[in-house]
Amino acid sequence: MTTKPILQANALSRKYQQPDTELSVLDGINLDINRGETLAINGVSGSGKTTLLNLLGGLDDPSAGSVHVCGTDWNDLDTSARAAWRNQHVGFVYQFHHLLGEFSALENVALPCLIGGASVAAARNRASKLLARVGLGERLNHQPAALSGGERQRVAIARALVTEPSVVLMDEPTGNLDPTTAASILDLLDELNASLDICFVVVTHDPAIAARMDRTVKLENGTLVDITHD
Fold first, then answer.
1. pLDDT confidence of residue 228
2. Sheet with 22-33: strands ordered across
3. Which of 56, 98, 60 lies closest to 79, judged by CA?
């Protein structure tokens, strides 16, 4: 039996209208990502990597083409249905953690569960277990300002994973971390990918990160080129 991809982009294009011209950023992107697969996307600055990530996650609309997540086309969902589907199936991790400064680590991680309709007790229980799993079991009640850069990124990763999504989209997740902390974050992602069978799609300039992914594609002139790992 053939298994459908968890995430699928079909003839995906994104253009922006400028005063004197039309700027084409993405042009006919096709991409299939299967359950548990890890994928690196690289390319020069301004090549459209973040634009692609936003389209894959349903945060932006394509000029043409479609993106299916777990068999559902973002184009078929209105704003509220899209938010609910994203909450259930897609996690995000950015270069900057975007944690809520007035909330504790536990509260930041529990929030997606609460948005998804879980009880406070269930959300806090899931959040505390996941924070323990990423090595922050003793830091549950610390606000982001009291955490190191690596700890804040671990909280962000836990927040992205707490709903057990099908795919997590990451934009330079180790870009602001020192090499030792970055390596520990990558070890954590390897472990979580293996144990939870979650897809990771990582935008990165770092060849060391790309080398740890199952597959690497390069965004070049608006299209994707496969890069074979040695």
1. 63
2. 22-33, 7-17, 64-69, 72-73
3. 60
| Summary mean pLDDT of the chain | 87
Name every residue whose Cβ is closer than 8 Å to that of residue 152 and which is 6 or more positions away in sequence.
97, 99, 144
Q: What is the pLDDT of residues 97-129, one digit of tens each?
A: 788 889 999 999 999 999 989 999 999 999 998
Given a contact cutoff of 8 angstroms between Cβ atoms, the answer to whether 96 and 144 are in contact is no
**Fold exhibited by the domain 7-227:** Rossmann fold (3.40.50)
- State the Cα–Cα distance between residues 149 and 39, nearest whole angstrom: 24
Domain coordinates of the chain in residue numbers? 7-227
Is 19 in contact with 174 (CB distance < 8 Å)? no
Q: Please, where are the H alpha helices in 92-223?
A: 105-115, 120-133, 149-161, 179-196, 207-211
**Alpha carbons 151 and 105: distance in angstroms, whole number:** 10
Contact 216, 42 (CB under 8 A): yes
- pTM for the model stands at 0.87
